[in-house]
Amino acid sequence: MVHSNTANEMIFDRVETLLANMTLKEKAGQVNQKLYGWEVYRKTDNGYELTEKFKEHVERWDGIGVLYGLFRSDPWSAVNFENGITEDVSAEVANMIQQYVKEHTRLGIPVLLSEECSHGHQGLDSMITPVNLGIGATWNPELHEKLMAAVAEEVRAKGAHLALVSTLDILRDPRWGRSEECFSEDPYLASRLTEAVLKGMQGEPSDFIPEGKMAAVLKHFASQGNGIGGKNAAPASIGERELREIHLPPMAAAIQSGAMACMAAYNEIDGIPCHANGYLLNHILREEFGFKGAVMADGCALDNLVALTQSRERAAALALENGVDISLWDDVFTTLETAVETGLVSEEKLNDAVRRVLTLKFKMGLFDQPFVEAKLRQNKEQAGKINLESARQSIVLLKNEGILPLKKDVKKVAVIGPNADAIYNQLGDYTPFQREGRVITVLKGIASLAEEAEVVYEKGCGIRSGDLEGLEKAVRLASGSDVAIVVLGGSSARDFDAQFDLNGAVVNTTGEEEMDCGENVDVANLELGGLQLQLLQKVMETGTPVVVVLIQGRPHAIPWIAEHAPALISAWYPGQMGGQAIAEVLFGKVNPSGRLPVSIPRSSMQLPVYYNYKDGGYKKDYFDMSGNALYPFGYGLSYTEFKYENLRVTRKTITAAQLWSGEKFSITVDVTNKGERDSYDVIQLYLKGKGSSITRRVKELKGFKKVWLATGETKEVTLELGAEEIQVFSSQNTLSSNRDGLKLKLEALSTS
Question: How big is the chain by its Cα radius of gyration, in Å?
Answer without folding.
Answer: 26
